Amino acid sequence: MVLLLSGTLLAACQSDPPTTEREAVNKEAVVKTNADTAKTAAAAADTMGLPAGSVPTIGSPKLLFTLDDAHNTPDGLALAPNGHLILSVPNLADNSKPASLMEIDGSTIKPYATNLPVEPTTQKAAPMDLAFGPDGNLYYAENQYENSKDFKSRLMRVEVKNGKPGAITTVVDGFALANAVVWKGNTIYVTDSQWDLPDNAQGSAIMKFSLAELSKGTVHLKPKTKDPHVLAMFTTTVNETGVDNGADGMDYDSKGNLYTGSFGDGKLYKVSLKPDGSLAKQETLTLSGKQIPCVDGLIIDRATDKMYLCNSRENAIEVVDLRNGNKVTTLAQNPDTDGSGGKLDQPAEVLLKGKRLYISDYDNPVKHFANTKSDAPHTMSVIDLP
Q1: How far apart are CA 259 and CA 245, in angstroms?
Q2: CA–CA separation, 7 and 169 (whole Å)
Q3: DSSP label at 12?
Q4: How sure is the predictor about 186, in pLDDT bands with cuts at 50, 70 and 90?
Q5: What angle do CA 168, 174, 179 make, to 5 degrees?
Q6: pTM to 2 decimal places
Q7: How far apart are CA 282 and CA 261, in angstroms?
């Protein structure tokens, strides 16, 4: 079943000054879409995309939902304790629309939280990846990098009672570009795709925080330093895309090893931990078969240690067999599409529930991507695995 969402689903609130994004929109206090994003959204096909005919059609992803313009960049996915999915919609392709969290139950999708607190200086909310913690609350990374390069991104906590969202508060601030979120035991790991140091302008990192620490009040990171919360750091090799975003998607395997991948150059990293949770070793994976130029969201099936990842640049879902020489195979791929019929349209996040792989189509490209422009329809896809 395909469900077309209406912008009227988002409830309006009023207060002075605005504290949520809907209030900011109503009061015309939102930050305008940044120039680069606006150009991408409005332009005709970017002729600097991948060469015509170079992207094949593989597999048959199906359409899960069609969203309206008020939900123009679906992104993060989390599995709730009740089996529902929570979807983040940061709306970074057109951030004149307020960001929100949506709830997916089978073939229906509805608002989950539409009163997301804005960052005080940008007057925007921008939820990315998200995950439920051992305390039953929902945590989401907020990417303010599109709105400010001045370390305004945050980690937010949604208090959940009886399956319903309540108060939303900041638990960590000072990120540059908070991105992926993974809970492992009582520790939450967060990637920062732009954690630069004075001697490394292409830096990124995995941060870690304990549940106990987050319960004591807001944690303030120290930008431009190897903050004590940094578990591992990486450096992106900038290529013709000009993108230096690094560590993006993240998950862990059946042995507890963490994995992340670089959005800018496609490198995959394995991060092994000591029994006390500190860094034991980090290494760059050597892949066999296809090489991957871009890694966005990823998830690992810990029953098989197969990694499913979004190759956003080539509009593909790749599978990396971590038990078989890191062999790469392509599960699905499409040339430049608008997402109609469930075709991939710059996949950004994947979530595996049983044998069903859920895919959010972010559709907000940069140059030299197979996807050449942000356009309607705004979609989510699904693949049923054998």
Answers
A1: 16
A2: 25
A3: P
A4: very high
A5: 70
A6: 0.90
A7: 12
How would DSSP label each residue in 316-376? EEEEEETTTTTEEEEEEE-SS---GGG--SSEEEEEEETTEEEEEE-----TT-S-----S
- The amino acid occupying position 292 is I
Residue with tokens 């208090």: 159
Output DSSP code: residue 156: E
CB 232 within 8 A of CB 282: yes
Rounded to whole angstroms, what are the CA distances from 221 to 144, 147, 213, 236?
15, 19, 13, 22
83: tokens are: 């089996």
Pairing of strands 219-220, 164-175: parallel
How many Cα neighbours within 13 Å face the side chain of 128? 26
Q: What is the Cα–Cα distance from 368 to 157, expressed in whole angstroms?
A: 36
Question: How many residues would you count in the chain?
Answer: 386
pLDDT tens for each residue of 95-143: 899 999 999 999 999 999 998 999 999 999 999 999 999 999 999 999 9
Structure tokens at 357: 């792989």
State the amino acid at position 104 in one-letter form: I
DSSP 8-state code for residue 121: T
Tokens of 111: 């608002």
